[in-house]
Amino acid sequence: MKxxxxxEIRGREEKRIELYQGDLTDLSPAEGFDLLVASAFPNxxxxxxxx
Length: 51
What we know:
Elements: E1 2-9, E2 15-21
Antiparallel strand pairs: 1-2
């Protein structure tokens, strides 16, 4: 997985929202995630390979 960007969230506890690109099937059980967002163009659902 490739870290593309992140946002620091200030508060009592410092937190981060991270944006990754990659294959979820390559994750180990220790590399869990809390949210999955998928995007597709209308009528085009074929995955694109990274350049």
